[in-house]
Amino acid sequence: MTISMLMCRLRQPIINIPCSGKRLNVRQIEKEKVVVVMGATGAGKSRLSIDLAKCFPSEIINSDKIQVYQGLDIVTNKIPKEDQRGVHHHLLGTINPDTDFTPTDFIDTSSSAIETITRAQKLPIIVGGSNSYLEALIDDDDYNFRSRYDFICLWVDVAMPVLQSYVAERVDDMFRNGMVDELRPFYSPNGDYSRGIRRAIGVPEFDEYFRREEFVDEETKQRLLEDAIKEIKLNTWKLAMKQLRKIHRLRNVKRWEIHRLDATPVFRRRGEEANEAWKKVVAEPSAMVVARFLYDSKNNHNVVSGLRLLPPSENVMAAATC
């Protein structure tokens, strides 16, 4: 079944209304919907979040603890403006790079964004690799996220050897796109790499290069450059493994319901073949899962016509099959 056919079937959700003579107070039982997109660095989380946002009226909340800061767009792999396709992003490059943005700060800011998005009759999509932020938001006892929202998690997964190769290629692309010049203003002889954006992979790795580049010959300078790039690749890979372990813990120990999407076939192809694979194994299955989450009567036994999220329009259905 195509996504558009499914959306047509779900255009008018089934509503179960008690047969008693009492008026049902919908506001007491209705929960807003939230979608969470997770995965290791480089797996395609941002791409999927944009695809979903073009299928459903949505806004995106960034949950990457480094991408929240202003600056270092290449080094932190922020999604470029042109790739955002007009979708509004919250907490993406908005925080002072010299401050510490804590999990508590994320809870406060993201919860405010969720409320703003739902008031606008749109779907909040939270996306990022910092699972500690997600865990803080969803399982925080004081905020009581679970009592206020129904949420669903989509995990974009890629076989580790395949992802490792891609991550290395991406670092090389970052270098060709100006990574060194972008990093240079963030170097300081007394730099603190434990605060703010200077925790980003790339900043501490280039410390020795910037510290010595003016005092060594070209051969040594080239070796320092290659060592820094090699260290970035290694530390990015370590980050991906750490993120993956946290996802397994959330799924297997904390028993979060997480829908896994295997994007490995996408990374084994190039060009249009890769795009077709992405649509087939990631984008369309994800849209189907989210559509069922939003409109299926099994998940929406409390949904009424006053639901703030807009029903799918003809444009939304067209976007789902593009």
UniProtKB/TrEMBL annotation:
Signal peptide feature range: none
Q: Give the first-level EC class, as a single word.
A: transferase
Q: Which GO terms describe its biological process?
A: cytokinin biosynthetic process; tRNA modification
| Pfam family of the protein (one) | IPPT
Protein's recorded name? adenylate dimethylallyltransferase (ADP/ATP-dependent)
Function noted in UniProt:
Involved in cytokinin biosynthesis. Catalyzes the transfer of an isopentenyl group from dimethylallyl diphosphate (DMAPP) to ATP and ADP.
Annotated GO CC locations: mitochondrion; nucleus; plastid
Q: Does the keyword Methyltransferase apply?
A: no
Recorded catalytic reaction(s): these are:
dimethylallyl diphosphate + ATP = N(6)-(dimethylallyl)adenosine 5'-triphosphate + diphosphate; dimethylallyl diphosphate + ADP = N(6)-(dimethylallyl)adenosine 5'-diphosphate + diphosphate
State the family named in the UniProt similarity comment for this chain: Belongs to the IPP transferase family.
**According to the UniProt entry, what is the EC number of this protein?**
2.5.1.112
Query: Could you confirm whether the keyword Transferase appears in this record?
Result: yes
What the entry lists under SUPFAM superfamilies is as follows: P-loop containing nucleoside triphosphate hydrolases (SSF52540)
Alphabetic keyword roster? ATP-binding, Cytokinin biosynthesis, Nucleotide-binding, Transferase, Transit peptide
Q: Which GO terms describe its molecular function?
A: AMP dimethylallyltransferase activity; ATP binding; ATP/ADP dimethylallyltransferase activity; tRNA dimethylallyltransferase activity
